[in-house]
Specification:
By secondary structure, the protein is mainly alpha-helical. It contains five helices and four strands, in the order ααααββαββ. It has helices spanning 3-26, 28-86, 93-175, 179-189, 213-222; strands at residues 196-200, 203-204, 225-227, 234-236. A four-stranded mixed beta sheet has the order 2-1-4-3. A hairpin with a 2-residue loop joins β1 (196-200) and β2. α1 runs antiparallel to α3.
């Protein structure tokens, strides 16, 4: 077997390993696992956002409560002033009107504040409901994810035996491979499963780009391989076809 044929054999066996890996990633359990993983991440992000909203709303509620307490204190003071003023014969109508105006403004402020607090409580209730639902959805998705993950791990464990056999076979083939050519192949194989391909009508049969004439002559002169200047695959000249009778 020639140096080229040995590496081609290596590539053929390596494809079997790739097929197993591809089948694992294409399995129903693996796809479901990846989908659920995204759902879990989204649920975590939503929970974090809702938690921040709740924290901000609680702080706002504290400020509004403090404001309400201040207004209540002012109301009590105004009531005290009114009780004093109505029993004071020296109190003037202008002073009473000013007091009434202050009390009216306090009532308006209290009504506005009451609406803000009511609205805030509604937002807090809504956020709490969403937070609880998100937590419930997360638990359900986590349960399904754990089940899918167990199946994926089982599939991986079953495949590992076959992969180990292939790796052992590849190691044996590598012993007979030209080290330089094998290194070229492995470098290209990081990007393409068909890393070692023949020239087809003066084109790379991988990326279909034309190969300069000078490069083709170099390939013929060397008698081995070249690297595609466009995609980096390792190219070789196909064996001449036997004439048909």
């Amino acid at each position: 077997m020639s140096k080229l044929d040995t590496v081609l054999h290596y590539q053929e066996v390596a494809r079997k390993k790739l097929e197993i890996e591809t089948a694992l990633r294409a399995s129903e359990a693996f796809r479901a696992c990846m989908k659920l993983q995204q759902e879990l991440k989204q649920s975590q992000a939503t929970a974090a956002k809702l938690s921040a909203e709740l924290e901000n709303n609680v702080k706002l509620l504290e400020r509004l409560t403090a404001k309400a307490n201040s207004l209540n204190e002012r109301t009590e003071l105004e009531n005290d002033d009114w009780n004093i003023m109505k029993n004071d014969e020296e109190s003037t109508a202008a002073e009473m009107n000013e007091l009434f105006g202050d009390m009216d403004q306090i009532n308006k402020d209290m009504n506005t504040l009451s609406r803000e607090i009511k609205k805030l409580f509604a937002e807090v209730d809504k956020a709490m409901d969403e937070y609880q639902k998100t937590g419930s959805d997360y638990k359900a998705a986590k349960k399904r994810y754990d089940e899918c993950k167990a199946t994926v791990e089982q599939e991986r464990a079953e495949a590992n035996g076959k992969i180990a056999e292939i790796d052992a076979e590849l190691a044996e083939i590598a012993k007979d491979c030209d080290a330089q050519l094998l290194e070229k192949y492995k470098r290209a194989a990081k990007h393409y499963p068909d890393a070692l391909v023949p020239v087809d009508h003066e084109k790379c049969s991988g990326c279909k780009m034309s190969i300069p004439l000078g490069t083709l002559k170099k390939l013929e002169a060397e008698g081995f391989t070249i690297e595609c200047e466009n995609c980096g695959r390792v190219l070789y000249s196909p064996a001449p076809q036997e004439p048909q009778e």
